[in-house]
Amino acid sequence: MILANTDQIQLNARNGDKKILIGKELAKGLGAGGFPEKGKMAAEESSRELKDSLRGADLVFVCAGLGGGTGTGAAPVIAKLAKDMGAIVISTVTMPFKTERKRVESAESGLEELRNSSDTVIVIDNNRLVSMAGNLPIDQAFNVANEVVATMIKGIVETISDASALVHLDFADIKAIMNKGGVSVIGIGETDASDSRVTEVVRRALNNPLLDVSYKGAKGALIHISGGPDLTLAEVNQIGEMATQSLDPDAVVIWGAKVDDSLSGKLRVMTIITGVSSPYLLGPEEINTLSKTTGAINQELGIEILK
Questions:
Q1: Dihedral, CA atoms, 69, 72, 75, 76, nearest 10 degrees?
Q2: Three-state SS at 197
Q3: What's the average model confidence in pLDDT over 226-239?
Q4: Where does this protein hold GTP (predicted)?
Q5: Are 188 and 147 in contact (CB under 8 A)?
Q6: Which residues lie across from 3 on neighbouring strands?
């Protein structure tokens, strides 16, 4: 794990295999001050060191919080460096709370840049975090999002490296799904229910709590199924059908399955759906068009559409 920051204090406070203070001359270790342009210039200043650290990587995860200076400005630069070096780039980012209006504007701009420089962008919306973990202490609440990201990365790495799986997924499979995947969403479901466990595990995997998404017309899916010795072929087939029923008819779907003795009586599914749509991720022009369309429907039919 490589950590990059413009803030020396924050960098020192985190654990990682390697730490890079970006923009030493520009930011002097004091941060980007909330200015994305400064974060971008800091990453560009340190591009040689960043490239040296990324060299040889086939798959790169870029994780950042959008809305501030360093994450918003530097993440797209780092993603592009990795992509230009031939890696598949999966960026995972958090979006700020809607009350942080200025940060939201910066985040939306940064997200658009990141979508252009990554193969796939997985978005976590802090506003959804409130409804999911609003009663937890604040540090624990934010750890929920961190845990989702960590579980996703761990799941993808294990999926590629696990040669003991009944149906093995390799790097080429990941590349086929992630290449130009657009906005994507991770789903993880687990159940020990004895009745209707297939329906329940798929519901939990697709009912993503951290981003309001629509799977209709999605372009690709990676599905990894794990279960105990009681896992049946019929269950694997049913999970695949249920998890992909809303996708585009021409969507690329790849799945893998493994038997894990420690999951006796349990069923676990990890899904990565690419090319999803979300009302939170509309750009200013699309939002303007949507508002006009909504107004026209209200006027024509006398129906109020609540968003």
A1: -130
A2: helix
A3: 93
A4: 69-71, 100, 103, 146
A5: no
A6: 19
Q: Please report, in range form, the residues annotated as the binding site.
A: 69-71, 100, 103, 146
This prediction's pTM:
0.80
Task: Please tell me the number of Cα atoms within 13 Å of 155 on its side-chain side.
Answer: 22
Q: Are strands 267-274 and 220-227 parallel, antiparallel or unpaired?
A: antiparallel
State the pLDDT at residue 136.
Answer: 77
Q: How many CB atoms lie within 10 A of CB 24?
A: 15
Amino acid (one-letter) located at 106: S
Token readout for 90 is 């999966």
State residue 12's pLDDT score: 96
- Which tokens hold the place of 263? 């999951």
Helix (H) or strand (E) holding 46: none
pLDDT digits (tens, 9 = 90+) for 168-221: 778 888 888 887 778 888 888 999 988 899 999 999 988 866 677 788 888 899
Binding site, annotated residues for GTP: 69-71, 100, 103, 146
Q: Rounded distance, CA 10 to CA 267, Å? A: 39
